[in-house]
C-alpha cells in the first residue's frame, strides 16, 4: 500500500484520537465522577477504539475490564451493554487511549495490499460485523469522532470551554508524536 495513503490515513485517524485524548485530559478533575454520561461515553470510546483495531476481534484483550450487562442491569447513563468493572481514573483512560493510538499507528503503517483483504469478522450471526480492514478502520475513525464530538459538546455546554481542533496527528500540545513514520 502506498506510503502517501498511509500518511493521510494516519494523520486523520491520529488527529481524531488526539482530539479524544485532549477532551478527556482537559475535562475538570471530578467531571468523570460527577457526570456519569460523560464517563460512560469516554469509557465506551476507549474500549471500542482498541476493539476495532484488533484483527481478528476474537483476540481482543482490553486493558480496562468491563462486564456486558442486559438492559435491566445497566446504569441509566450507560450508552450500551459494556459496563466498566470499576470507575477508572482520567489517567487510566488517557493512558489506554495513548496505547491504542500507538496501536492504530502501527496498524496503519503495517497495511499492505494483502492485509487490506483481511476481514474484521465478529461471528456468523446476522448482526455481527464483517468488514474489510480498510472499512473497519474508517468505521473506527467515524465512531471515535462521533463520541469525541459528544464529549466536546458536553464540555462546551457545562463549562463554556472550547476544546481545540486537531488538523493532523500530533499537532495538539501535550499529545506526543514521538514515533517516526
TrEMBL record:
Domain of life: Bacteria
Coiled-coil ranges from the UniProt annotation: none
Domain DinB-like: 78-151
Pfam families membership: DinB_2
Protein name: DinB family protein
Native source species: Robiginitalea marina
Lineage summary: Bacteria, Pseudomonadati, Bacteroidota, Flavobacteriia, Flavobacteriales
Amino acid at each position: 500500500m502506498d506510503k502517501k495513503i498511509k500518511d493521510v490515513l494516519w494523520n486523520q485517524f491520529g488527529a481524531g484520537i488526539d482530539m479524544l485524548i485532549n477532551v478527556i485530559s482537559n475535562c475538570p478533575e471530578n467531571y468523570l465522577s460527577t457526570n456519569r454520561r460523560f464517563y460512560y461515553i469516554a469509557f465506551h470510546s476507549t474500549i471500542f477504539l482498541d476493539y476495532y483495531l484488533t484483527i481478528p476481534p476474537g483476540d481482543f484483550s482490553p486493558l480496562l475490564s468491563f462486564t456486558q450487562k442486559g438492559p435491566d442491569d445497566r446504569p441509566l447513563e450507560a450508552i450500551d451493554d459494556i459496563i466498566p468493572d470499576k470507575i477508572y481514573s482520567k489517567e487510566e483512560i488517557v493512558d489506554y487511549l495513548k496505547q491504542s493510538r500507538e496501536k492504530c499507528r502501527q496498524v496503519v503503517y503495517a497495511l499492505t495490499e494483502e492485509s487490506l483483504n483481511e476481514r474484521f469478522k465478529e461471528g456468523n450471526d446476522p448482526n455481527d460485523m464483517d468488514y474489510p480492514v480498510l472499512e473497519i478502520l474508517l468505521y473506527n475513525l467515524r465512531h471515535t469522532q462521533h463520541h469525541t464530538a459528544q464529549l466536546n459538546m458536553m464540555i462546551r455546554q457545562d463549562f463554556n470551554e472550547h476544546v481545540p481542533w486537531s488538523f493532523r496527528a500530533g499537532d495538539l500540545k501535550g499529545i506526543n508524536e514521538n514515533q517516526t513514520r
